[in-house]
Structure formats: structure tokens, C-alpha cells
Amino acid sequence: MSDVAVVGFAQAPNVRRTEGTTNGVEMLVPIFAEVFEQTGLSKKDIGFWCSGSSDYLAGRAFSFISAVDATGAFPPIHESHVEMDAAWALYEAWLKIRMGEVDTALVYGFGKSSAGQLRRVLALQLDPYLVAPLWPDSVSIAAIQARLGLDSGLWSEKDLAEVAARNRGVDVEGLLDAQYLADPLRAHDVAPITDGAAVIILASAERAKEFAARPALITGIEHRVDTPVLGARDLTRALSAEAAARAAGADGVEVAELHAPFTHQELILRSALGLGDQVRVNPSGGALAANPMFAAGLARIGEAAREIFAGHANRVLAHATSGPALQQNLVAVMEGLD
Amino acid sequence: MLSAPLEVGFDYTRSLGPVLGRFVNGLRERRIEGVRGADGRVHVPPVEYDPVTAAPLTEFVPVADEGTVVSWSWMSEPLEGQPLSRPFAWALIKLDGADTPMLHAVDAGSPGQIHSGLRVRVRWADELVGHIRDIAYFVPVGAPDGIAPEPPPVAKREEGAPVSIVITPVHLHYQHSASPEESRYLKGLADGKLIGQRCPACEKVYIPPRGACPVDGVPTAEEIELPDTGIVTTFCIVNVPFLGQRIKPPYVAAYILLDGADIAFLHLVLGCEASEVRMGMRVRAAWKPREDWWTSLENIDHFEPTGEPDAPYESFAHHL
To answer: How far apart are CA A117 and CA A260, in angstroms?
Structure first.
């Protein structure tokens, strides 16, 4: 089976609110052009297209169909979509190349989080019988998770502020003076609401050097999921992230891009993925700097690959999450293909 | 650019299996039952399949309507649909007799009055209908009930039959934005104009114009005002009544290709018998009175035959 490498990455400006439509076209057209420029590829060269987005975010059925226009999908293309973060679309594209069906793939994700009320929309990813009818919002659930760690001494509010300061590039002094947003979380503990999009081009290892000077070869990519029953798992850990990291072979990475939309979740992930102090975590600022829904996980893979493109690292890890309180986790490990 | 509120609402109606059905019917009698998992833990609310092994679970275990707060967060500005409209705590609550906690609301008054380890009890809804919201919320043990919200809607069932369906109304609110190209098109309609745009790459004329030409993936650019005449490319006769239908069947829904456009759009053809509509038939827009115009293609009430000779099939075959 063919190995697979990331050969190109681009992302739209991460903004609090775009004037554009929820179908992402205005965000996608420029970044497709950018990633084609990077790789020297054109749409005719792409063997498979896969995207991640959500109708709930857009408030429209089949909202991803309009986004397909941005790909110039006529004559018909080989295309698929996941109603998940586009990191999982990348997993599907990775499989297509592994199976030898295609040797290039373009993966994109987009979300206009500002169109609706994000924390309320996200309540609808919960069990629809007995939990979602109460409308528990995403921030409140994360705050309950954060308190479990505070109560058991796994972390302190100061630890959380330090995570925020590092990712957001601000001074930790004074952060703890702020009022709670959702006690025990403050605004700095919670990812911003972001509109954005990201795109990655994958190629088989055999062809990757045609499109990038230093491709990021995917040496392992795995995803696992924990029970949706919030009370039935230890929320201070992420067992599915631990399992994914074990299966993907996460040892010895120099850089890790973590999809942690809440400060305490970065601490859970550092522990789950076995990241020591020597690992550079989130040089991009991670999801706490910008959290475009359905693209932020894919962007972690892109940002980690960029460390390899630039020669800043030789072995990197990228993580993506989905669901409430780190329920589902994907881990990708990449190495420079010299 | 144009934008407008978009309200999306639906009453989700879900049938319950034997596990969740038994749970909600118990709630109607102020009874809470959990289920024993493969590892012996009692899960509340009950789960149909074991969270670890996925084995089907069938051993029900009654638990108390009083328990202990395991963790909590404070909701200072409650959101629409949540159990309380006054500030409250979300909490994981382990009921006495259960091994796993359940997520629900606690009417604690202020964050100073709740802590992990606090003893709480169920505040039952005033009317029990067989829904998770029969547990209106929790209150600290010894605290008064407070005022509970209205119960959710209930599905019709035979007299005396157990609850087998739960209804959950979902209402979401969006601000929907039209693209720059759609905005120019919609503003044109408000003035009685049909504005298309030409793709700079393939030179096809799109109406409505697009943020990206589906062939070339680039925004359409050059603006072109199109006439309100064209042809029927293909059509169907609607014979089936459906919810929200505004015209009495039979009537014709057709793809209309305006003169000078390269893409057809769907509209109505009236003004003749449905059986007289043909592929290639020449049609003209029948506009609503000017005072009813707004930023909508509804300004054209329908298209009707002009009586001109039909367009030859070869002239529109590539649009089918």
C-alpha cells in the first residue's frame, strides 16, 4: 500500500464574523488558488476531493453542496463529504490513496460559526433522547469537565491561565482577575468563535516530491471514540486520544498541534498523548487562537505539516477532536520526506 | 450584501425502545430506574448498550430521587430551551443507588450556594408526561421547589397506553447572508430586473449569478441584464398534493432558460392547460403587481406561453 504525504496547506483568515455565506465559497476560492500555487497542481490533477462541514452550523440542509461549486466540479469529480471536522475527511482521503485508487487528494473544511449561536447549536450533538432536550451547551459541559480536574488537583485555575497565555500570546498577569464566563472557566479558557476554512493537498509518497520540496509523510493516523454517555467515562482523561496515540505511534515528536478548544483540554491531551516538556505545543496558537468549526482540526494537521515544510521539525504530531468534552479524537504523526 | 434572520424549527418526534421507554414511563410515576452495566455499574439514565462493551443491557435498578453533586458549572445567562430561565448550575449528579452521574440543572440561586458534594433532590415537574423534563431540575435538599417551566408537547396515544414517543421541539436562529453575487441579483429583482453574470473563464451566463462557476471555480463577474422571455427546457406536471402547496394540481413546474442565459432555473408555467406545455415552448414572465415586488424571484408569479413558434430541440439539447 502506498504511503501518503501532506504536500500543501492553506487557510482562510480566521475572523470573528465573515460577511460571506454559510456555504463557504468566498473563503474557499482564494485558498484553493493558494494551495494550487504552492503545489503546482490544478483542479484537473486532483484524484479525490473530500470535505468536512455541518448543516447545523449553516442552518440549511445539504449546505455543503454549494461549496462544491468552489471546486469547479464539472466535468464531474470524485467527491465525498463528512459531517465532521475535515480532519476526518482527510482520513477518508488518506484511505483512498492507501488503497491505490488515486494518488492525489484535496481535503477542505469550512464553517461560519457566527451564523447561529454556536454553544447552543452544539447541544444538538448530544444524545437526542435524554440529554439534548435539556439544551446543555458546549461551554457548560466543558466547564463541568474543568471542575472535575480542579477538584481532584490535576490542575489549577492558574495552570489554565498559563495555557491561555501561551496560546493566545498574552501576559498571564491579570488573567485570573477576569470574571467567570461559565464558572470555573473564564473567557480566556474558551476558544473564540471563529469563521474560517482550511485546505490540505495529499499525495502518494511516490509522487509527493513533485509537489513539495519537503513533504510531510504521514507515518501514522488513527481515530478512536469514547462513549457518548458523559457520566460513564472519566472526563479528566481522554481514553480515546490515548488509544489513538498508541496506535499511531506518537513517541518522539518534536512539535504537537492540539485541537483543544478549552485550556484544560490541552492539559488532558498533553497527558493522553504522552507529550513531555521538550515538545513544542501549538506554535500556531491552536484552537484557543482560532477555532473555525469543522476546519480547526484539519488546520492542526496543516500547521504541523508546515513545521516540516519549513524544516523546523522532523517529526510532528497533529490532533483533532469532535464531540463534547474530547469524546472523539484523531492523531496523525508526520515525518519529513527528504 | 443582503442578510436576514433565518428561523429553523422542528418538533423532533422519536420513538423509544424498551430501555428508554421504561425510564420515561417511570418518571411519570416519580420513579427513577437505572440499568446495570456489564461491569456492575448502575447507569442513570439507563443506557441501551453498555458504554464499554456495547452489550445490550436489561437489568433495571431503582434509584433514589436524591443524590450528590459530582461537578458543576455556572450558567449566568441561561439559553433558550434550558431547564431554567433564571441563573442556575449545570451539574453531574450521582443519584443514591447509581454509580454514574447524570447531567441536569440545579436551581441553586447563586454560585456561592453550590459545591461538589452538595446534596440535591429532584424537583418534579408539575405535570408528568413521560419525558426527561419530568425532572424539571434539581434543588438543594431542604430548599423549596421554585417555579418550573411548562411541560414539553406530548404525542397522541391510546387511552391508558404507555408513552412510546418523545417530542423535542428544536428552534435555531441564524443570520443568513446572501453572497455578493446573489445580493446584486436579489436587489435587481426588487426593481423588476433579471441580473445574470458571465463567468470570466467559460463565458457562460448564470442566473442567479454565483460565488463560483461550478465548471471553473471562479466567481462570475460581468453583469448582464437578461430579458424576461425564454423557453421551457424540461418540465413536470405536478399531480400530487403536499403540505404547503399553493396551487391546485395539476400544474406545471418547469426549467426556464431565459434568452441569453446558459443555465435554466425552476419556475411555474401557467396560462395554458398543463397538457399543452412542451419542451422548447416560448414563455414570458407574468410579474406580480409592482407594489408586491421585493428581493425575491417570487416577483414573477409564473411564466406563460407567448404563442411564438417553439425552439428547435437541438438549440437547447445541451441544457438537459
So the answer is: 20
> Does residue A25 belong to the interface with chain B, where contact is any CB pair within 8 Å?
yes
Residue A245 above 90 pLDDT?
A: yes
The torsion angle over the Cα atoms of residues A238, A244, A247 and A251, rounded to 10 degrees, is -70
Alpha helices in A6-123 (DSSP H): 25-39, 55-58, 64-67, 86-98, 118-121
In the chain, the amino acid numbered B27 is L
- pLDDT, tens only, A290-306: 999 999 999 999 999 99
Whole-structure pTM value: 0.94
In chain A, residues with a C-beta closer than 8 Å to the C-beta of B16 are: 129
B137: β partners: B123
- At B111, which amino acid appears? P
| Type of residue found at A323 | G
Model confidence pLDDT, tens digit, residues B75-117: 999 999 999 999 999 999 999 999 999 999 999 999 999 999 9
Q: Report d(CA B300, CA B283) in Å as an integer.
A: 12
Which residues 199-258 in chain B show a CB within 8 A of chain A? Answer: 210-219
Helical axes A239-248 vs A263-272, angle rounded to 10°: 50
Say whether the ipTM exceeds 0.90.
yes
Sequence-separated (6 or more) residues with CB below 8 Å from residue A99: A1
CA separation for the pair A6, B22 (Å, rounded)? 51
Q: Which residues 59-88 in chain B show a CB within 8 A of chain A?
A: 70-76, 79-83
Q: Is A64 helix (H, G, I), strand (E, B) or coil?
A: helix
Interface test with A, best of B82, B137, B174, B263 (most A CBs within 10 A): B174
CA distance B231 to chain A (A): 24
For chain B, give the DSSP string: --EEEEEEEEEEEEE--HHHHHHHHHHTTT-EEEEE-TTSPEESS--SB-TTT--B---EEEE-SEEEEEEEEEESSPPTTSS-SS-EEEEEEEETT-SS-EEEEE--SSGGG--TT-EEEEEE-SS--SSGGGEEEEEETTS---PPPPPPP-----TTPPP-EEEEEEEEEEEEE--HHHHHHHHHHHTT-EEEEE-TTT--EESS--SS-TTT-S---EEEEEPSEEEEEEEEEE----TT--SPSSEEEEEEEETT-SS-EEEEE-SS-GGG--TT-EEEEEEPPGGG--SSGGGEEEEEE--PPPPPHHHHGGG-
Parallel/antiparallel/unpaired status of strands B265-269 and B251-258? antiparallel
DSSP state of A258: -
**Counting every residue, how long is chain A?**
338
Give the DSSP H/E element, type plus range, for residue A255.
Answer: strand A255-257
| A166 and A263 Cβ atoms separated by less than 8 Å | no
CB contact under 8 A, A69 and B210: yes
Write out pLDDT tens, residues B161-210: 999 999 999 999 999 999 888 999 999 999 999 999 999 999 999 999 98
B156 CB-near residues (< 8 Å, 6+ apart): none
According to the model, what pLDDT value does residue A66 have?
82
Does residue A253 belong to the interface with chain B, where contact is any CB pair within 8 Å? no
Question: What b/e sequence results for A302-331 when a residue is b if at least 16 CB atoms lie within 10 Å of its CB, and e otherwise?
Answer: bbbbbbbbeeebbbbbbbbbbbbbbbbbbb
pLDDT tens digits for range B217-242: 888 889 999 999 999 999 999 999 99
Q: Is omega for the bond preceding A215 within 30 degrees of 0, making it cis? A: no
Task: Supply the pLDDT for residue B1.
Answer: 87
